[in-house]
Amino acid sequence: MALIITDECINCDVCEPECPNGAITQGDEIYEIDPDLCTECVGHYETSQCVEVCPVDCIPIDPEHVESQEELHAKYLKITGEAE
User: Fold this and answer.
1) Helical spans, DSSP H, in 1-84
2) Is residue 11 part of a domain?
3) N or C: which end of the chain has fewer CB within 10 A?
4) Is the pLDDT score of 18 beyond 80?
């Protein structure tokens, strides 16, 4: 599952540098997460780093992009160039 940033985002700038995949960027009004790059930090960390640092708890799982742990790991391998 990819994550999504809700409109409760206060643009505090702490999530973007924490993303190891570069999935978080500044949108028109709030930060946004690219579901093609979001692995929920699978392959990098035990927990999603953006969720850990978010002061307003506005980063839930995106119901539009449901993925298993195996799918997230495969995406991580593809993004990092480790896929065979």
Assistant:
1) 49-53, 69-80
2) no
3) C
4) yes
